Amino acid sequence: MFRRNPRLLASISKLSSDLMCSHDVARSPMQSTTKFGIAMGNKGPGLSDFIKDLPRTRKDKIFPAISDTHAYISRAQLNGDGKKVLLVTFGCQMNVNDMEVVRGLLIQNGYIETKEEAEADAILLMTCSIRDGAEEKIWKRLKHLKRNQRRPRTVAVLGCMAERVKSTLLSTPGDLCQVVAGPDSYRDLPRLLALSQSGTKAMNVQLSFEETYADVTPVRVDTHTKTAFVSIMRGCDNMCTYCIVPFTRGRERSRPIDSILDEVKRLRDEGVKQITLLGQNVNSYRDSSSSSISFGVDSRMVDGFSTVYGQKSGGRSFATLLDHVSRVDDSMRIRFTSPHPKDFPNQVIELIKERKNICNQIHLPAQSGDDSVLDAMGRGYTRESYLTLVDNIKNAIPNVSLTSDFIAGFCGETEEAHQNTLSLMREVDYSFCFVFPYSMREGTRAHRKLVDDVPENVKMRRHEELASVFREISLRRNVSRLGKRELVLIEGRSKRGEKSMSGRTDGGIVVHIEEKEKKMETGDYVVVKITGGTSQTMSGEY
Ligand code: 5AD
Ligand code: SF4
Question: Which of 97, 306, 373, 378 would staple 368 via disulfide (CB 3.0–4.6 Å)?
């Protein structure tokens, strides 16, 4: 059974980067650490100098030497002085929101955003590591940028891949990137960019126990959109065995309620009509910054659920946050993603039922419908307890729209286990599912303890079967809406053509609406008659 003390590990990693205090981040990883991954300073011989073929541990491979750049830079040099930055985001909504934080920080420091690659002094890529394919995309983009480079410029890799791959990004032949910044070091970007502009490659991948960027005002790409994401927490403590996120984003920490409410009110004043609260595990949210208001604290787990980490208690819970956020403006829709089924308190179900502006859509990632796979994944629930939660939710909110994530071909998944997942999908009757073929990630518990034994062609076949069952279910659900009326929040022009707008129902389904006599504007609520659709979207008349 996996046991470790993350606090201790984090302090070791902090200690190691302090001890090395390197100014030269471009060196190869093995030059500055011992082969056990705990730095002992870069002077003097290490154990490896005496034992020649000391095997490298897997941990060394994934977490190469941490040698953050500690070089001093003057205050004046921190200013971007009108230099142009191109910001490119890959991956999830959390990354979109992180890029908004980066945009805010860079604008504050005198940088200007450009959309033109050719005129950019720096190109910043917000990256994802969740599956191997996500990282491959970034390597491709880095090579493409290098080939297209016509004048000196900095390329910076930010986010999860920066945290996972670290200095290898800087030392890979071809000088593909000059700055590496992990998810907790965006405040350091002005210094890292200034260093790179003076010719020094620079890296900061220190993870933090406290950083929530609570005081940074995120700047959205397009301020005309009427929907916004608000990050309420960072990191994840769940340690699902397949997942790299706890290693790339660090320990779970919640942003204080007051700062979230300030942001939501600012967005309301800008005319935003829908807020999505974001976090890796939103309903384990705890604001312990002030325990004076502790309305509705409920730290009991629903029966049948367990956690590898101690259940959080005290402070202000997700139910409290949701209560406050939904009262800011009752014409503003509230969504949240993603909750973990094991942390789903009854209070949140009650609130969704009671408040008309909290959408009746719940993303409840099941990952698998088979007990032995769920156990191997370390999810903390069984098929039965998951289904009990689904029943409770459906009983309380009859028109609820449930969505989920599934992984096909996890370690040890048998054909029978796969069939159990297909039958869970049918039983729950999801309105939308994201399905992924399993991708083994170095450093995860599955990588250390389990065997990635489902052949690639079988994984792909099961992935396709999950996708086709999902399409069959959602098509049936969408067809059943024909002729009914739905309240849609218009999000913008539809890709279907000049005279079409698109928006979402309360349940989160996209509806394309043809504009006839009555005009629609982004941010309008309109009652639409459903006239058609596919498994993915619906169409309607207004
Ligand atoms: N392989 C495939 N899918 C994964 N996910 C997370 N880690 C992996 C992995 N190693 C999926 C899970 C998660 C979603 C965000 O990504 O389904 O809920
Ligand atoms: Fe990964 Fe599990 Fe955390 Fe989601 S809850 S980010 S799947 S560890």
Answer: 373
